[in-house]
Specification:
By secondary structure, this protein is an alpha+beta fold. It has 2 domains: about 5-135, no CATH class; about 150-315, Aminopeptidase, CATH 3.40.630.30. The chain has 11 helices and 10 strands. The strands form 3 sheets. The chain has a 5-stranded antiparallel β-sheet, sandwiched between helices. Strands 8-10-9 form a 3-stranded antiparallel β-sheet. A two-stranded parallel sheet has the order 1-2. A hairpin with a 5-residue loop joins strand 5 (about 210-215) and strand 6. About 25% of the residues are buried. This is RimJ/RimL family protein N-acetyltransferase. GO terms for molecular function: acyltransferase activity, transferring groups other than amino-acyl groups. It comes from Butyricimonas faecihominis. Keywords: Transferase.
Length: about 325
Amino acid sequence: MRRQDWELLEKYAKKYKDRESGKFAQEMLDMKRGVFVPEEDDEEADEWNNDIFQVAETPFSELEEDTRTAMEELLEDNINEYMIHKDYIPEGKDLQDIADWVLKETNDTFYLKAVPDDAYRRLVDDTVRKMVKEWKDDGLEIKTYAESLTIMETERLVIRKITRKDTGALLALMGKSEVMYAWEHGFDKKEVRQWVNRQFSRYRKDGYGYFALVLKDGGKLIGQAGLMKSVINGNEAVELGYILDNAYWHNGYATEAARRCLRYAFEKLGLQEVYCSIRPENTSSIRVAEAIAMKPCGSHTIIYNGKEMPHLLYKTEKPMQ
């Protein structure tokens, strides 16, 4: 018997000593103490276990009540730990991994061959709902993964954090030289990966960065907009930025996203002013800045790939209450 199996039996024998499952675990411990001393990797013990404990598969719904109760408690513990660690609700593969682990843990502990059935799947779903309700009853906010990514919304857009799964869509967008006009070239795959990693770093450090712009109608990623800490003419500042797929130009999306980002900056982040750096020839971006009431306030030069790039500066301040 492996040491981890021995420890599991001891845990169940102590925790469920008044139930059949706990009594069974204690009987196993008593019997094993006279046969094998637990080792870290005892192949002989595993062979002995396989020879002695040949049991038939048992659907979850046909297990003893105390065993089902123990599994429910394990599900609750692990789902709660997941929610604490991840800060969102387990779904899909993550939830299935938890359910599979609880099943394996139970089988290893009680020498069963319990198999999932509709009752077990219902228990898993019901346990998630139960834990979510408990969190909310305690005044704690918990969301699904997709909901946890969403930062803000507009009438037509979801503005959310970028994920690694967005790399392909971002490459299709940022690979266009006309879209990346301010950088004077389209990005290749390596540059897009670096860009994504830079946003992750900003999210961790500042809580914001460039966010993905996703159409509510259809779910397509059509651009990016957000806020970035910067240094302008030697002074720390926060800048607004926006990048839109040229297939969606002239539809008001950039203005819609930029206006919402400013509101987020003032209302959520408590900023007092926001800047925007724009290439003098980029008339489309200038029109967006002017549409959201940003005013010209000077200029500065950005060094990119060893090249000096002059930029106009636009600025807006938090509205007076």
